[in-house]
Amino acid sequence: MANIQGILKSIRDIMWQDTGLNGDAQRIEQLGWMLFFKIFSDKDQELELLDDNYKSPIPTELHWENWAGDDEGITGDELLEFVDRKLFPTLRNIPVGEIVEKLEKLMAFCDELEANIRESKRQAETLLQVAIKEALIPRE
C-alpha cells in the first residue's frame, strides 16, 4: 500500500506543475481516467491471453500501452490533441452495452482471481500448519 501511496503522490506532484489544471477536482478526475485506462488495458490484455474469442471494445490504437505506455511517446500539445480529438470522441461512440458486457467479464475474471488467491493462501496456511506440527511434535 505504501508503494501505491508513493506512486499517487508522485503523480499528484507532477500534475500540480500543470498550469492547465485549476484545482484538485480536475486532478482527481484526470487521475481517475488514467487509472481506469491503465487497469482496463491490463485486464484487456489478460483476457486476450485467456480467451481466444475475446475482443476488446476499445480500438487497439486507443489502448493505454499504445499512447501512454511508451516513455518516448506523445507528450504536450500532441497528447492533448490526441486525448481531446481522438480518444474521448472515439470512446463516446462505443456502444455502452458492449463496454458494460466487457466490464462484467472483467469483473468476473477479477472475482475468479480473488477466489484463486484466497484458496492459494488457505492451502499455504494449511501446509505451513502441517509443517510446524511435524517439526514440533516428537516422533515416537
Put the structure in a nutshell:
With 140 residues, the protein is mainly alpha-helical. The chain has helices at 2-16, 24-50, 64-67, 76-92, 96-136.
Please tell me about this protein's structure.
- With 140 residues, the protein is an all-alpha fold.
- 74% of the residues lie in helices and 0% in strands.
- The protein contains five helices and no strands.
- The protein has helices at residues 2-16, 24-50, 64-67, 76-92, 96-136.
- The chain is elongated, with a radius of gyration of 22 Å.
Largest sheet: none
What is the total tally of β strands?
0
> What form results from the Cα inertia axes?
elongated
Quaternary structure state of the chains depicted? single chain
Structural class, judged by helices and strands?
mainly alpha
Residue-averaged pLDDT: 79
What portion of the residues fall into strands of 2 or more residues?
A: under 5%
Low-confidence segments, given as residue ranges, are none
**Total helix count?**
5
Helix content: over 70%
Distance between the termini: 47 Å
Global Rg: 22 Å
Order of helices and strands: HHHHH
Task: Chart the SSEs and their pairings.
Elements: H1 2-16, H2 24-50, H3 64-67, H4 76-92, H5 96-136
Task: Using brief descriptors, characterize the structure shown.
140 residues, mainly alpha, 74% helix, 0% strand
